[in-house]
Amino acid sequence: MGISVHEMPRIGPEGEGALQTGNVITVEPSIKAGPWGGISVEDIVLVTDTGYELLTTAPRELYIKE
After folding, report:
1. Which one has a higher pLDDT value, 40 or 3?
2. Is there a domain that residue 3 lies in?
3. What is the total count of domains within the chain?
4. What's the pTM?
5. Longest pairwise C-alpha distance within the chain
């Protein structure tokens, strides 16, 4: 998305600045589950005049390989 990891503007409790229409950002929630690992989902979002547009098209269903 950018030139380096975690560029401004950052969103969240410690973020500074403001998002503007046309900004494209990633939203990266994650869950850590002990020493074995966890999961992270990364969505790409376009900031619009009325809110946002989700650009990520990956499916959301949980898939467990047996």
Report:
1. 40
2. no
3. 1
4. 0.69
5. 45
